[in-house]
Amino acid sequence: MGQAAKVLQLFKTLHRTRQQVFKNDARALEAARIKINEEFKSNKSETSPKKIEELIKIGSDVELLLRTSVIQGIHTDHNTLKLVPRKDLLIENVPYCDAPTQKQ
């Protein structure tokens, strides 16, 4: 796949991830949309293949971080937040145990 196709694919993937991560939060959706578009526009004239690969790696890392680490919080009271984790974040949640039991 050519670099232009990789860049376009990353751009689309970041926007899809943004829509999933910040669902029902218009302010966060808009801020993320603006930031993604700004970053791509600021590097639009980049021609060095090495630099483009580096930028693609950074963008992929950001997408992974958004998808695996961001949880929405909703203010419910003066000092209270209600966390709204996505289902895909809860799948790999294995509780930690200080005293593991021995297998028999």
UniProtKB/TrEMBL annotation:
<dbReference type="InterPro" id="IPR050435">
    <property type="entry name" value="MZM1/LYRM7"/>
</dbReference>
<comment type="subunit">
    <text>Interacts with UQCRFS1.</text>
</comment>
<dbReference type="GO" id="GO:0005759">
    <property type="term" value="C:mitochondrial matrix"/>
</dbReference>
<dbReference type="InterPro" id="IPR045298">
    <property type="entry name" value="Complex1_LYR_LYRM7"/>
</dbReference>
<comment type="similarity">
    <text>Belongs to the complex I LYR family.</text>
</comment>
<dbReference type="InterPro" id="IPR008011">
    <property type="entry name" value="Complex1_LYR_dom"/>
</dbReference>
<keyword id="KW-0143">Chaperone</keyword>
<feature type="domain" description="Complex 1 LYR protein">
    <location>
        <begin position="6"/>
        <end position="60"/>
    </location>
</feature>
<dbReference type="Pfam" id="PF05347">
    <property type="entry name" value="Complex1_LYR"/>
</dbReference>
<protein>
    <recommendedName>
        <fullName>Complex III assembly factor LYRM7</fullName>
    </recommendedName>
</protein>
<keyword id="KW-0496">Mitochondrion</keyword>
<dbReference type="GO" id="GO:0034551">
    <property type="term" value="P:mitochondrial respiratory chain complex III assembly"/>
</dbReference>
<dbReference type="GO" id="GO:0044183">
    <property type="term" value="F:protein folding chaperone"/>
</dbReference>
<comment type="function">
    <text>Assembly factor required for Rieske Fe-S protein UQCRFS1 incorporation into the cytochrome b-c1 (CIII) complex. Functions as a chaperone, binding to this subunit within the mitochondrial matrix and stabilizing it prior to its translocation and insertion into the late CIII dimeric intermediate within the mitochondrial inner membrane.</text>
</comment>
